[in-house]
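Weekly puzzle thread! Below is a chain. First person to post its structure in token form gets bragging rights.
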Amino acid sequence: MLCPVCRNRTRLRVRKDTELINFPLFSKCKQEMLINAKNFETTLNEIENRI
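Winning reply:
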């Protein structure tokens, strides 16, 4: 899965049948995001800095 902010790879992998609701995603760009994912489509809910 790619980070919605910086487009770098994350360590998270999803399958076609995976559903994520308000999932905390921590990326290499030091951003914490809440995402929803369903059928390989990802939507961004919130972004917080985690410096």
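Puzzle host: Confirmed. Bonus trivia for everyone else. Strands lie at 19-26, 31-38, 41-49.
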